[in-house]
């Protein structure tokens, strides 16, 4: 079973790197497409890729909120 991180847990993503996660996702996709994995490993890797995508989405949403807040503070001045 895949464990999901909540948005509140994602605030403490110390050492987490967006580009590294994207590279990991790309690597998983390449291994699946190349047929390097047996069926069970494909499902495990796919589940990992989905979780990494969720993490990336949360990261981008948080950064968008920060940008929106900065823009709002500039508009107020």
Number of domains: 1
SS strand fraction: under 5%
Low-confidence stretches: 1-10
User: What is the tally of beta strands?
Assistant: 0
**Class computed from helices, strands and strand pairing:** mainly alpha
The level of helicity is over 70%
Please summarize the sheet with the most strands: none
With helices defined by DSSP (H or I, 4 residues minimum), what is the helix count?
A: 3
Which radius of gyration do the C-alpha atoms yield? 16 Å
State the order of secondary-structure elements, H for helix, E for strand: HHH
Distance between the termini: 49 Å
Q: Mean pLDDT across all residues, rounded?
A: 86
Tell the overall outline.
rod-shaped
Walk me through this protein's architecture:
This protein is mainly α and 77 residues long. The protein has one domain. It contains 3 helices and no strands. It has helices at 7-10, 18-34, 39-76. The termini are far apart. The model is unreliable at 1-10 (pLDDT under 50).
What topology does this entry show?
Elements: H1 7-10, H2 18-34, H3 39-76
Helix pairs in contact: 2-3
Characteristic key phrases:
rod-shaped; mainly alpha; 77 residues; 0% strand; 3 helices
Concise structural overview:
With 77 residues, this protein is an all-alpha fold. 77% of the residues lie in helices and 0% in strands.
């Amino acid at each position: 079973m895949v464990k999901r991180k909540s948005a509140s847990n994602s605030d403490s993503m110390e050492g987490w790197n967006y580009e590294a996660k994207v590279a990991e996702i790309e690597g998983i996709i390449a291994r699946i497409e190349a047929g390097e994995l047996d069926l069970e490993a494909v499902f495990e890797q796919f589940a990992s890729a989905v979780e990494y995508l969720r993490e990336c989405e949360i990261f981008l949403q948080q950064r968008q909120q920060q940008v929106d807040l900065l823009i709002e503070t500039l508009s107020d001045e």
